[in-house]
């Protein structure tokens, strides 16, 4: 296990650096990758350690990019607010965390079901209102919302 | 990481939640639901489980909403703007690189608008560059700027697509040097001037000798050294000297002479990747001094030490400036 770290740590950092272009992010993500990899049950039988590490790192990378894209979207929205509507710094953090949690929860849900569920839960829109907004039938909205509930409830707690 | 199976009772609870919501008040469906709920403790548990979906982040959003209305709608828009992904496909590997690509394109957007990547010369956030053009003229680009070069036998045309430039023109009889913005054209008559593309209008400032400004149908206007004009495609008007007309950025600083803080912050924006918010009260505070552009962190710190303002940062992505 210590070998995995000492043999491949530098390589992984370089691999991540090429994708992130930031030495600090690369170092952080390399660390996270080893933590995940060492906690993995697949570990004792790794034949291709670098391919395995790259798989783990790739997943962390896509999570990171996803989270950044979400924060960027939120940032753009904040930027459009007039000054008196700006939330406090504490609330910005609170909302940012909540957004990340919701996005993780909805990960993998098809786009229409995702939109319907967000309108339903966050904006409190009724099913007919969602149907109108998305231009689909009421039955489709009901199906989408049911699917979203099932999706969230079947989320394995990691 | 495989998903958990959902039992029948939980499915029933979801159906109830969706049905009840559509039922009018006092509908018989309400009593039918009450019966279902009371029939068995597992029903109650299932009902709680379904109602607890997303409850924790929603409660946080509602708290923020109470303090500043509009947060829920804003959160909803942010979430709906993102493309959907499937984690399982990502794990498969094939989509991973595609996703990474999409992600970085989304992030890169604020830092370098995609259109400008196609420009002949461009700079990103916090990046200032100097170029020697084919005719020997020197072109400086401020941060987040882009130009296209269209040089031919009869003219030297520089199209400013975004941001700000300054040129030191090498005279060449018979081949005028022209900087074009969305609102007009500036033709060099002498050596040094700067042009800035803003939203909806442009600004020309002459640091040495003079230029000819052409905007809309108005007659060409000669702008002399030390003068500056704003033009919008219809007309132009003289503007007083300010940190914008001094083009201090070309030397990596911004020179402020008793001007509002808001103007100084505008000049710092292209040098910061995150969002910079300044309250209207803070924006009105008068500032005097010369500030480095390449270390905006230090500039903000020194401002907060000398002015009655507070600077809060949330990581690198949001900085807020307000009066104390």
From TrEMBL, chain B:
Sequence intervals crossing the membrane: 90-108
Database matches in Pfam families: DUF4880, FecR
GO molecular function: sigma factor antagonist activity
Domain FecR protein: start-end pairs: 120-211
Matches recorded under InterPro entries: FecR (IPR006860), FecR_N (IPR032623), Ferrdict_sens_TM (IPR012373)
Domain FecR N-terminal: 11-52
Protein origin, superkingdom: Bacteria
Keywords per UniProt: Membrane, Transmembrane, Transmembrane helix
Record's protein name: Iron dicitrate transport regulator FecR
Organism: Pseudomonas alkylphenolica
